[in-house]
Amino acid sequence: MIRGYMNNYVITEIDSAQKKMSAYVTLLNYRYMNLCVKAEVGALMPITVYIGDDAYNIEDVATVNSPDEFQFGVYPKNENNLQDIIQGIYEAHPEFKMKTASIDGSGDADKRYLLYTMPDVDENRHDFLENAIKVLHEECCTRIEAIHLEFKERLVENMVKISQAEADEAVDALDALRQKSLAMADNQLEKKQQEIDEALEHYQEEQVRQAEEKPEFDYTKGFRMTTPES
Questions:
Q1: Within a domain: residue 219?
Q2: Which of 22, 97, 219, 228 has its Cα between 20 and 30 A from that of 158?
Q3: Is the pTM here over 0.85, yes or no?
Q4: Domain of 102?
């Protein structure tokens, strides 16, 4: 951004507009992440875990990783806090599928951890998420447009403080900020749409795989059987 003609007032206003627009783009990203289409560790960071009367962030009481695109592994730092962690995560994301496992498969209580799987994105959930991200994107863009208009009006109201050259450069800078912020929001929408489409494809592939692995039922004998290999 060229600021050759800008005085301190204009620079402050432009910086303020940039921070406000960036905040809404960041909020859009946060909201998309918390839709939890795929397992993004950052989606668990805002979770609060209550142990007794004390509140902790999830990273204070557990280590979190993502073994694959659709699962979280949550490893308690203290086994005694396992139920508190389960409760904290459930309150934030009741849609997660949870099971307990042990690190070495032994079932040892001291080595237990939590494995969370993201909800399936079937056709209905796909349509719901697709609509949700469009609504959130539209809200973000509306906020950006409002900030752009607000600061343009403020510049006009304070023309006495700046020269025409400064006003022209400030307007150009605001327009550039608007275009950049809207482009970032559009990019996030496109990426999330792709993520949702990929999750639906993953679900459909899993359905096909499970159907192929399901043993046949012999109705004449009343028990399940598998087709012998040739």
A1: no
A2: 22
A3: no
A4: 41-117
